[in-house]
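Design job #97: recover the sequence.
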C-alpha cells in the first residue's frame, strides 16, 4: 500500500486525504491545532470545485446544509438601500451547478468522509523532513517518525512545509485586513438577504439567513496589518466599521461575546514558482493562495486535491511525472484567479468615492433589461 502524510486538516488537506484514501492509499493527517476548526464564512462551490465535490461523493451531505440564493442589497452608512440585486440574477448567472455552504459544513462533510480512510493526529507538527528518490521520512513533534511515498503540505498560506522544504516563503502580504464569522440573530437586515456597504477603503457585509445561519464579512485597507492584529478583531472592527448600520452593530456585539469565532488576518497571496520538490508537494493555499478577493479558494482546494489524486492514479509509481502533469494542468487556472484578485481588491477596497460610484453604476447597468442577460453570461464564463 502506498502511504501519504498530509500536513494540515483544512479543506485542501481533507480533500487530499479523501481522494487518496478512495484510491487505496494509507493516509495520516497531521494538524497543528488541538482540535478541528469549525468556524468560517460562507463560500460558493462552482465550476471545477462543484465537479470535484460531485466526484468525491460530497453533494448529498452538502445539499442538506446548502443555502438558497438570496437577495443582495447595497446600502449607505445609515443602512438605507441604494440598490438591490435579486436572487434570480445570481441564479441566472451561476446556473444549477453551484452550491453555497458555510465553510464549517464543508469541513464537516469532508472530515466525515475522510475519516473512513485516514488517521488524524491533532496537536502534531513536522520537525524534520528527509527524502530520496523512493521515500520521504518525516520526524514529528511528538518524537515519532513516518516513512511515506508522498508528503503533502496543505498547511495554508503560512505553510511551514513550504518554508522548510522549498527554502522560501513565497507569501506576499497585502495592505488589507479581513474578518469573517458566523453570527446569531440580525435585527435590521431582512431575512433571506444580504446587506453590503462598500465605501472608500472598506466593505462590510451581513447575511441574514435566520438564527444561527447568518454571517458577517469585513475587509478594509490597512497601512500596518501587524498593528491591527495586535489590537484584536473586536477593537479593530469597531474602529473601522463602528459608524455603520444594516446589521454591523449586531455583528460586532455578537463577536464581543465570543471573539474565538472569527477568522481575522491580513490578506496574503502565495506565488510559488513550483508546487513540488521530489516527493513533497503543496496543495491549496500553501501552493497558490489566490486571496479572498478572487474567490474560488475552496473550489480550487477541492479541484486541486482531486486532480492531484487523478494524476497519481494515472502515473502509478512515476510520482515525478504525476506531479509535473498535475501542476501544468492546474497552474493556468490559478494564474487566472490571481489576476482576478487584483481587480477584486479594487472592488472590495475601493481607493476613492469615484470608484465606489463607478461600481454602483456598473451594477445598476447590469440590472437593466437587455443588459441583464449579457451580464449573466459574462459572469458564468468567469466562474465556470
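Job complete. Output follows.
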Amino acid at each position: 500500500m502506498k502511504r501519504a502524510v498530509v500536513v494540515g486538516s483544512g479543506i485542501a488537506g481533507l480533500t487530499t486525504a479523501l481522494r487518496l484514501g478512495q484510491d487505496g492509499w494509507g493516509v495520516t493527517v497531521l494538524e497543528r491545532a488541538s482540535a478541528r476548526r469549525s468556524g468560517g464564512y460562507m463560500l460558493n462551490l462552482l465550476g471545477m470545485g462543484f465537479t470535484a465535490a460531485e466526484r468525491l461523493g460530497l453533494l448529498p451531505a452538502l445539499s442538506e446544509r446548502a443555502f438558497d440564493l438570496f437577495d443582495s442589497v447595497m446600502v449607505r452608512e445609515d443602512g438605507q438601500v441604494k440598490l438591490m440585486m435579486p436572487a434570480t440574477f445570481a441564479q441566472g448567472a451561476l446556473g444549477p451547478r453551484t452550491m453555497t455552504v458555510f465553510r464549517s459544513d464543508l469541513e464537516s462533510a469532508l472530515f466525515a468522509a475522510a475519516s473512513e480512510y485516514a488517521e488524524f493526529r491533532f496537536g502534531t507538527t513536522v520537525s524534520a523532513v528527509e527524502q530520496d528518490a523512493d521515500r520521504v521520512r518525516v520526524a514529528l513533534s511528538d518524537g515519532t517518525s513516518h516513512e511515506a511515498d508522498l508528503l503533502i503540505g496543505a498547511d495554508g498560506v503560512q505553510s511551514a512545509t513550504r518554508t522548510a522544504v522549498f527554502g522560501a516563503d513565497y507569501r506576499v502580504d497585502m495592505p488589507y485586513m479581513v474578518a469573517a464569522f458566523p453570527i446569531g440573530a440580525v435585527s435590521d437586515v431582512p431575512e433571506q438577504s444580504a446587506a453590503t456597504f462598500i465605501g472608500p477603503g472598506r466593505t462590510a457585509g451581513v447575511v441574514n439567513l435566520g438564527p444561527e445561519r447568518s454571517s458577517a464579512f469585513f475587509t478594509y485597507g490597512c497601512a500596518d496589518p501587524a498593528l491591527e492584529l495586535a489590537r484584536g478583531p473586536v477593537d479593530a472592527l469597531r474602529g473601522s466599521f463602528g459608524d455603520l448600520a444594516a446589521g454591523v452593530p449586531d455583528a460586532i456585539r455578537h463577536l464581543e461575546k465570543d471573539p474565538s469565532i472569527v477568522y481575522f488576518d491580513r490578506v496574503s497571496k502565495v506565488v510559488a514558482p513550483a508546487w513540488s520538490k521530489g516527493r513533497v508537494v503543496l496543495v491549496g493555499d500553501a501552493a497558490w493562495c489566490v486571496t479572498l478577493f478572487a474567490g474560488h479558494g475552496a473550489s480550487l482546494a477541492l479541484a486541486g486535491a482531486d486532480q492531484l489524486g487523478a494524476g497519481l492514479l494515472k502515473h502509478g509509481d512515476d510520482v515525478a511525472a504525476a506531479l509535473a502533469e498535475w501542476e501544468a494542468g492546474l497552474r493556468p487556472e490559478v494564474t487566472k484567479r490571481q489576476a482576478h484578485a487584483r481587480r477584486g481588491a479594487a472592488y472590495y477596497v475601493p481607493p476613492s468615492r469615484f470608484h465606489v460610484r463607478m461600481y454602483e453604476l456598473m451594477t445598476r447597468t447590469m440590472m437593466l433589461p437587455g443588459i441583464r442577460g449579457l451580464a449573466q453570461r459574462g459572469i458564468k464564463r468567469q466562474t465556470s
